[in-house]
Amino acid sequence: MELWTERQATRHLMVPGVGRDAARSALKANVAGRPLSAGGTLLYDARAVCAVLDRMDPPCEIRQRTGRPIFVARVAPRTPDPASSWRTWRGADVLAPRPQQLDAVRGWWHLGFRLEALLRGVGQYKGVPFVATCGGIVVLGAEIRGIDAALADEGAALSEARIASSPPGSDYTRRAYAFVLDEPGAWFDGQRGRRFTTGAGGPFRLLHGRKRDASTGRPRMEA
């Protein structure tokens, strides 16, 4: 088995749209498997790294498969979350059990009133596609089915703390929410590991699906 250092593996994954920091983040999320540690050096199976590159191309097709809005979350590699009452870590680790992965990305998202209302309403009615990316690579797919009311108090406390720390005169009003996530639909089939470049921005973007109704040419909101 040929082994590559983290530097070698990172350089191999640096393709257009995936820079050095992004490639390193994806590796730390275990997209190429768990590395071996030898004398403080991380070593990756070269075949697994090559397989990651193969999965990255062609680019993600999710926007072409749905007419619904898509919540694209940009998450960091797994990191401890000691302040949480309901999870031990947050971020991305593709080798962790599925329930832990969902908990790690479903909160906290600081949303304005309109976006919260949209996600709550559409989520309860038909589900909102949720895609988590790490380093520009799709690491998880799910569907938002609503806002977790059981975590409302904890979210409110986080919101108040952030508002209190805002600069004087700030009109910051976003609130922290945790989603209820369900399994993804057919729109996610074969998309894990693909590249999903969304450009510069904050921790998430809401994108519009591009699926069209053949009869009208308009975006189709599937049932």
Present the secondary structure layout:
Blueprint: E1 3-5, H1 6-13, H2 20-28, E2 36-38, E3 41-45, H3 46-56, H4 62-65, E4 69-74, E5 79-80, E6 89-90, H5 98-105, E7 109-111, H6 113-125, E8 128-134, E9 137-147, H7 152-164, E10 175-177, E11 179-182, E12 204-208
Parallel strand pairs: 4-8
Antiparallel strand pairs: 1-3, 2-3, 4-12, 5-6, 7-10, 8-9, 9-11
Overall description:
This protein is an alpha+beta fold and 223 residues long. It is built from seven helices and twelve strands. It has helices at residues 6-13, 20-28, 46-56, 62-65, 98-105, 113-125, 152-164, and strands at 3-5, 36-38, 41-45, 69-74, 79-80, 89-90, 109-111, 128-134, 137-147, 175-177, 179-182, 204-208. The strands form four sheets. The protein has a five-stranded mixed beta sheet with strand order 11-9-8-4-12. The protein is globular and about 55 Å long. The chain starts with a strand and ends in a 15-residue tail after the last strand. The relative contact order is 0.19.
Q: Whole-number radius of gyration?
A: 19 Å
Query: Biggest β-sheet, characterized?
Result: 5 strands, mixed
Helix/strand class: alpha+beta
Instruction: Tell the overall outline.
Output: globular
Strand order of the largest sheet: 11-9-8-4-12
Strand content: 15-25%
Query: What value does the average pLDDT take?
Result: 91
Count of discrete alpha- or pi-helical segments spanning 4 or more residues:
7
Give the termini separation: 48 Å
The helical percent reads: 25-40%
Structure summary, number of beta strands: 12
H/E element sequence? EHHEEHHEEEHEHEEHEEE
- Unreliable stretches covering 5 or more consecutive residues: 213-217
